[in-house]
Amino acid sequence: MEQGARVYAVGGPTAAHGFEYSTDAWRVLGALWVVVLLVVAVPSAGISVINAQMIADLDLDRSVFGLGFGMFVMMMGFQGPIVAMLMQKFGYQRTVTVGCFVLLIGSVIMATLVNTGWQYVLAFGVIVGTGVCVGGMLPAQSAIARWFHVRRALAVSVVLSAVEFGGFLSPPSLDRLLAASNNNWRLGWWVIAGLATVALLITRFALNERHVERLVAAHPTKIETSGETNVFKSHVHWLLREAVKTRAYWLILTYMSVAGVAWVFLMAHGVVHLQDIGYSSADTAMAMAITIVASFFGNMAAGFLGDRISPAIIAVASMVFVTLGFFLLVHPQGFTGILMYAAPAGIGYGASQVCVMALLGNYFGRESFPSMFGSMMPVSTLCAASGAAAAGAIFDQTGSYDLMFNIIVGLCVVGALAMLLASPPRPTRIDRDRAAEGVAQ
């Protein structure tokens, strides 16, 4: 008997429901959670504090700063199809190992060599962005889509919570680190390099996908006994060329793009916007932490509800929360103002990410998730990157972000409407053999 198989030999709920209710499943989610924490959370959220200090130290204008952050997002998105192919060809471990190593190299370059705007754009935008993409969310979510069916939304929310947890800790922690080191922002990048090394080691020694797949195949979760059967979950594995002909594909892409624009703006420009209107660096770090904590609650709420209530309905509600948050972010007053914008914006975005991941697996089949999500990433991240760059240009021209706030609020309304119309696609010319294969798996 393989290590870990004893979980199923004792009977009871675990034996009745299979892998997804086992301690092995939680071990897998725990390992994925730590890798996402180290590879995605700090480079995506914590660096807002580091880069804010870097702007002053290197005397960068906001357009170059926005370009670098936009390039970071573009690398994460435009390489989505490549990461999907790497996952299919080499598997999770090899793909994520490469991503962690690239993130390590980019962090070391930021810590030692970057002194100009173009160097920042290249090192942070291109190299660090590539490492986060190849080692981060797409491989983790692809693994979840493959290994979890009944409890997919919950599994997605658990792994995504690593971003909120890391985001909560990293901004204030890095702010204290900078304060204790005479605002040495390069030291922060050495910390990120060390975290990338730890993630690489965990990937190599704590995640064996062949072992996991043997457990999943030997102990499939029994849908009929789980009580979680109210949400539409396709047994047909759609091909990408078929999915792009459906309305649901484009509506989900629209929603995903809008959420990306809002979040990237908040990560790239939220801290400097608050500092522009008089908040201290400690206040802005706390604002970021509150946003991330709120995102965690939205994430977990969507995870617990998303296998019982349609994620499309939850997605509409989440976009309403994001809209409210950005409306209140324009001119917040004191700590109450920070709390009033950060809570709804964070809750809404956290829930939106679970909804997108769950909907893609539910609507198009778990085996199709990498190709669906990978194909959407270039478009959605191009929108997000363009929004970050445009926000910097708008600030340089007008001296404020007010126009960008109005644009984002309008886009959020469009995103909510898209989800209202995103009903499950119905296969029309999917051959019966592939549909039967989807049920069998």
Describe the structure.
By secondary structure, the chain is mostly helical. It has a single domain, classed as MFS general substrate transporter like domains (Growth Hormone, Chain: A). Helices cover 80% and strands 0% of the residues. The chain contains 18 helices and no strands. Helix 6 runs antiparallel to helix 16, helix 14 runs antiparallel to helix 15 and helix 14 runs antiparallel to helix 17. The two termini are 23 Å apart. 58% of the residues are buried.
What tags apply to this protein structure?
441 residues, Growth Hormone, Chain: A, 18 helices, mainly alpha, disordered C terminus, single chain
Characterize this entry briefly.
This protein has 441 residues and is an all-alpha fold. Helix content is 80%, strand content 0%.
Which H/E pattern describes the elements?
HHHHHHHHHHHHHHHHHH
**How would you name the CATH homologous superfamily?**
MFS general substrate transporter like domains
Which whole number gives the mean pLDDT? 82
Assembly state of the chains shown: single chain
Structural class: mainly alpha
Unreliable stretches covering 5 or more consecutive residues:
1-16, 224-228, 435-441
What would the principal axes of the Cα set say about the shape?
Answer: globular
Question: In the CATH hierarchy, what is the class?
Answer: Mainly Alpha
* Main sheet attributes: strand count, strand direction, barrel closure: none
